[in-house]
Specification:
The chain is an alpha/beta fold and 552 residues long. 47% of the residues lie in helices and 14% in strands. It is built from 18 helices and 13 strands. The protein has helices spanning 13-26, 40-62, 67-90, 104-131, 153-162, 185-196, 212-228, 243-270, 275-278, 284-295, 299-308, 340-343, 347-358, 360-367, 370-381, 428-452, 497-506, 510-517, and strands spanning 136-141, 144-148, 199-202, 205-207, 280-283, 325-328, 333-337, 402-406, 411-419, 472-480, 492-496, 530-539, 542-551. The chain has a four-stranded mixed sheet with strand order 1-2-13-12. The chain has a four-stranded mixed sheet with strand order 8-9-10-11, sandwiched between helices. A hairpin with a 2-residue loop joins strand 1 and strand 2 (144-148). Helix 2 runs antiparallel to helix 3 (67-90) and helix 6 (185-196) crosses helix 7. The longest helix has 28 residues, at 104-131. It is globular and about 80 Å long.
């Protein structure tokens, strides 16, 4: 036993061995599941259906535009793949692959598996971080370990911020955008035509002819949504297709998903929710054909994108990222889609995550333009600020990503812009932390060079006077999508991209803007905006406790 939490590298061998036994036992929690008696394809389909049922229950209770709904979608998209991977690896391949019928027994089986997967997901998050010395562990008993993330109050605030929690009051209060609800009359009419043409095929199923006119009518809206939230250029090359072409295909995909989700909803209101039909199941060739026809993108590019968005049973971890799930039913390869996940995904994040996995070297090349794209966005959002950059510096000094000055308040900002892909697995956080913090070293090098060459930034299109002549000089690392907490180090501060843009857009003079930014009032406050408690989960007779954040 240990009396206080500690990282793995300083724990005794006895403690490390005891914690490893807990992990090994937890890893076998799938063994008694009735799910494994099913053919893997039936089991995977059942898990997707049950996941949709859980999402629909959340919508019924709290609507589909709340922080709780977003959290539900994220959680289900993460723990459902855990059970799906168990089914793929350990399922009964000799059992019948069809028919896929939603019965009480199947619902109970899927619910049991997802319950275990939900609890096991905590183990998957915490134990890898313990092995990397990023979590403290306290061996409470031979069957229970408690994990704690090290750090101070600020670390917890940053963790809450990255989980989507924001201040409930003050000038940085979060305002949730209303969900688009307006449906043009022509869409209503086309939905009604599709609904009127649907027919019951069982107590919990229905079918309808492909509503191509409806899809085409929805297409402009969903293409606009896919393109509108993309934060990278349409010309960005991702392989043999561009981000713009991907958005065209994904917009078509979302149109199909939106039509199906609504028709299922309408059927449920008029009759009974059609659980057997809730998951869209089509052959891979059919998916490619309809997406190519609807989007206008060549079939070979559609095939490439569908293949890259296809869930890898055994490795994939998120249904937002890999929405096409392969099923083998004896008649060839089919791809199943739970429409709720792609409809609530960020297409640009989805494909960039995929490219980072499949073509890491290519992804690294696409990352080279992130700083300039971040700067371009800042210029659009802050038209009254003269944002300069990138400013080339003599080798080996790093370039300045962004520079801006305000003569009225005698203030200048020199910034390094960092834009990290959001993590899929907890252990990815370590590498991303290091990449963001590299900006501190870059600014230190830039500052040292400017101390020796004080006139380097003066002249046309730069600063009207030497940097040493300004009353207020701020050195900032501005991080986007991922960032760790860092106390002000050697006069260098780390701030978040959205907060930076908001602060500079709200204050009249640059000095006041940065001073407001560095109060960190844009971080949520524990006890006011969120709370943290140790939640315990048990699988296969062993348990763990870890910190869980809740919105207040």
């Amino acid at each position: 036993m240990i009396s206080m939490p500690m990282i793995k590298s300083v724990a005794s061998s006895e403690v490390v061995e005891a914690i490893q036994k807990i992990e090994d036992r937890a890893d076998k929690c799938y063994e008694p599941l009735a799910l494994l008696d099913l053919h893997p394809s039936v089991a995977v389909w059942a898990l997707m259906v049950r996941g949709i049922g859980m999402i629909e229950a959340e919508i019924e209770q709290r609507g589909d535009n709340s922080p709780e709904f977003t959290a539900t979608l994220i959680n289900i998209s993460r723990f459902t793949p855990i059970a799906m991977n168990w089914a793929a690896k350990h399922g009964n391949v000799s059992a019948p692959a069809v028919p896929r019928k939603w019965t009480v027994d199947l619902a109970i089986t899927a619910t049991q598996a997802l319950d275990i997967a939900t609890r096991y997901a905590h183990f998957v998050t915490c134990f890898p971080m313990w092995h990397k010395d990023r979590y403290l562990a306290d061996l409470v008993s031979p069957e229970l370990v408690r994990f704690t993330a090290p750090g101070k109050t600020r670390n917890r605030q940053v963790s809450a911020y990255l989980k989507g929690l924001r201040p409930k009051t003050g000038r940085f209060q979060m305002h949730r955008n209303p969900k688009p609800t307006t449906m043009p009359e022509i869409n209503k009419a086309l939905f009604q035509i599709a609904f009127d043409g649907a027919r019951r095929t069982g107590p919990l199923s229905f079918e309808y002819a492909d509503p191509k006119v409806l899809w085409s009518e929805l297409l402009p809206e969903y293409k606009a949504r896919a393109s509108g939230i993309a934060r990278r250029s349409d010309d960005l090359l991702l392989g043999n297709y561009t981000l713009g072409e991907f958005n065209q295909i994904y917009g078509a995909f979302l149109s199909i998903c939106a039509a199906h989700e609504y028709l299922c909803f309408a059927w449920g209101k008029s009759y009974v929710y059609p659980f057997e039909s809730a998951v869209m199941v089509r052959s891979g060739d059919n998916w490619v054909a309809i997406l190519s026809e609807l989007s206008g993108v060549a079939p070979e590019k559609c095939l490439r994108i569908v293949s890259e968005l296809t869930f890898n049973l055994g490795r994939s971890v998120d249904l937002h990222v890999h929405p096409f799930v392969p099923l083998e039913d004896g008649s060839g390869r089919t791809l199943a889609v739970a429409p709720q996940f792609p409809l609530h995904s960020r297409p640009d994040e989805t494909i960039l995550r995929v490219v980072s996995i499949l073509r890491p070297a290519f992804f690294d090349q696409t990352s080279n333009g992130k700083e300039s794209e971040s700067l371009s966005e800042l210029r659009k959002r802050l038209p009254d600020r003269n944002l300069l950059g990138p400013i080339l510096m003599p080798n080996p000094t790093p370039d300045v990503d962004m520079l801006t000055a305000d003569e009225g308040s005698s203030t200048v900002i020199l910034a390094e812009l960092k834009w990290m892909r959001k993590s899929l697995r907890s252990v990815e956080i370590i590498e991303k932390d290091a990449a963001v913090l590299n900006g501190v070293a870059q600014l230190q090098e830039i500052r040292a060079f400017l101390a020796d060459h004080p006139d380097h930034l003066t002249g046309a299109w730069r600063l009207p006077r030497r940097i040493q002549d300004y009353d207020h000089v701020y050195w900032l690392v501005v991080a986007r999508d991922h960032w760790p907490w860092m106390d002000v180090t050697d006069g260098i501060a780390l701030v978040e991209f959205e907060a930076f843009a908001m602060a500079l857009g709200a204050a009249d003079d640059l000095h006041s803007a940065v001073e407001q930014l560095l109060t960190y009032d844009w971080l949520p406050v524990e006890g006011r905006d969120f709370r943290v408690q140790y939640d315990g989960v048990t699988v296969n007779g062993v348990g763990q406790e870890s910190e869980v954040f809740y919105s207040l």
